[in-house]
Predict the structure.
Amino acid sequence: MKKILLSSVCVVCFAIALSVPSSTQAAADREEMLAQIQQLMELIADLQKQLSDARGEIREIIKDGLSEGMTHEDIREIQQLLATDYEIYPEGLITGYFGNLTKQALKRFQKRHGILESGEINEDTREALEAYFEMKNGRYVPGQLKKFEIHQFDWKFSSDKDDLDDYHGHKVRVCHNGKTIQVAKPAARAHVSHGDKIGSCDGEEKNKDDRDDDKDEKAKDEAEDAVAEAKTAIEDLEDFIEESDASDDDIDEAEADLNSAETYLERAEADFEDEDYEGAKENAKKAISKVDDGYEALGSNYDPETKSDAEEAIEDAEDEINEAEDLIEETEDKDLEDAYEDLDEAKELLEQAEEAFDDGDYEEALDKAEESLDIAKDIDEVLEDSDDVNDDDTKDALDEAEEAIEDAKDAIDNADGNTDDAEELLADAEELYEDADEANDDKNYAMAKYLAEKAEEKADEARFEVS
């Protein structure tokens, strides 16, 4: 359409040239010539208006894919628009070529409108430019506009009451049909004109606030736990240093690590008071790391998690042993001598666990405590079931133990390496099986079942030893 109109203008201009009187036509009527010129000027004005209207139609859409290094008529139109503001495009070159000057001008334009400053004609930039062309119907002449009408786009979207800016980067939150969406800033104007509201929908904003509160509370709890853990670790290291028989140099190094840990703890506590929960957690972790360095300087393999696990296992073993002792008083008339002996073993293991814990050997303490706990649990089970176990239960337990013993024998016979440990475990299993069978003959079903299960466990250990 643009080419047709321009061609029409050229034809008219050529007609004017032909209509100008030559020296041989000097006698022509002057008034007739002026009338023709007037008519032609009116025609040109009308064609210019049509051309301008046509340009306004196509300006509503800018060609896709315009990028640096290209030459295009749309780039020329964009340059004309940018040049209307000296602060945006001070060079004001209208060439149609997308060079570095145009890119810098676009960056200034993007900055003013809250769009990502890339210097590229991306989706948001395109929408903003097209909005300007739409308002002015494409009629731009370089230097004609003194200032962009940026108030049309530079809104501070804060219609809600959370005092938060509702756009993230160059996007705007809009409540559209009851659902919160994000759109480019220029597009937000169209949404508002159709009745949408700037900001999150009321219900969603409330839910978001609730989620934020839960998140903050969780961060606070995590920070509080981290600070408490660091404080406990520092206190433990202090006690460990006092009781350590390490060299003076090693103790000095450990004390230096302790001082560093205390410094980090102070920072963590300060961060917590300032509600900087992430900072509190980070400094608490650094404090614990320095505590670990202190133990390492003293030649200890301290591990806070292992210590905690050992402490918990010791408490559990104590509870199970106490429960077993209570049950023993209730079953004095039962022949459960083997269970009583095992209870003594559990107590001895618990004492060893406590000694290792006091010495700072938390791995050893954990192993002993768990072993004591397992024995105590088995004893509690047999004592609790002493009145309910019958000969069928015992027979099933004996059959399973016998099968496990046979499997262990086969595994040992087919093993290539040393089988001494496995054979010793197998011997224990066979002895337990005999005791279980004897208890069954005496109709002491609870003890028979208990011993048969222990025999099965020993047989499984023997088989695993050579697997």
Q: What stands out?
A: The two ends are 88 Å apart (CA to CA). The CA atoms of residues 70 and 98 lie 5 Å apart. The chain has a mean pLDDT of 76. The first helix runs from residue 2 to 19.
